[in-house]
Amino acid sequence: MKPEKGLASIETTAVDQNVVIAQPRLPGPGTLGFEIWTTPQLPIINCPPGLEPLLNIELLTVLQHRFSVFDKNRYVIRNAVNQEILWAEEAPPPDSCFGARRFFDMQIMDIQQREVMTVFQSYDGSCCGLPMLRNKMDICAPPGNPISYVEQRMSGLRLRIVVKDAAGNPVLNIHAPSMSFKIGGDLEFSVLQLDGQVIGKIVKKWSRSGLFTPRDMYVVTFPPNIDVSIKTALVGACFLLDLLMYSSEN
User: Fold this and answer.
1) Could you tell me if 190 and 178 are in contact, meaning their C-beta atoms sit under 8 angstroms apart?
2) What pLDDT, in 10s, does the model give residues 137-195?
3) Taking a C-beta distance cutoff of 8 angstroms, is the pair 14, 46 a contact?
4) Which residue intervals of 112-151 are DSSP H helices?
5) Which of 76, 113, 189, 240 is close enough to 202 for a disulfide, judged by CB 3.0 to 4.6 Å?
6) CA–CA separation, 178 and 68 (whole Å)
């Protein structure tokens, strides 16, 4: 994809449809006391089934629920009004001996416990038959159908993440701050178009127990009209950042 195409090239065609994409209902068992969304019955153009709650929104919160380094990674994904819209769980259990240099599958489910997306972490390239430290994530929705990719890159000593579309063309860059580890404050990653224009950010929220903890929280902002596949890639980028930084800390 050429840089001059800019944001318009990744906009969704579904945002102008007059479709009720979600309706809140009272929280039930296992919802942690928050409202959750139901999914619509009618299909929406350019939106994989089960991901309709991602349409027309511009903020997501990805909250980790992990009780030890030997436990599965679990995440709750919420919208701007704190409604749970997706759940994520790592399968199989992680091999913590390899930290960030391991393979995993992340299963993404809607609030009806239907698997609507998978995130598979692998490596881009090899050396002497061994995996390199350059991580890659394939985002598939529905499972088995790749819709976007997230790849780790290094620019000098700074971490950079490249977001690619289904054809493997770069569409966005995510840049780490100049100081990768801040003490006592949030950690902000800029989301940029290929021409360098900032269109969003991923913020790793600071907690009293430290910057990287078993209950990490990421707040993701982006334009509401970008394609759902790119929004899912930004969620995958949160998983990658959490894997790289929290696993490395352990």
Assistant:
1) no
2) 999 999 999 999 999 887 666 788 999 999 999 999 999 887 555 556 788 999 999 99
3) yes
4) none
5) 189
6) 30
Q: Six-digit token pair at 46?
A: 């350019």
pLDDT at residue number 45: 61
Helix, strand, coil percentages (3-state) for the chain, rounded to 5, are: 15, 40, 50
Helix (H) or strand (E) run with residue 138 in it? strand 135-140
pLDDT tens-place string over residues 9-29? 445 444 444 444 444 444 444
Evaluate whether 117 touches 108 at the Cβ level (below 8 Å): yes
pTM for the full predicted model: 0.75
Q: Tell me how far CA of residue 223 lies from CA of 19, 77, 132, 159, 211, in angstroms.
A: 19, 18, 33, 23, 27
- CA 106 to CA 113: how far, in whole Å? 14
Ramachandran assignment for 184, one of left (phi > 0), alpha (psi -120 to 50 degrees), beta (any other): left
Rounded Cα–Cα distance for residues 187 and 197 (Å): 20
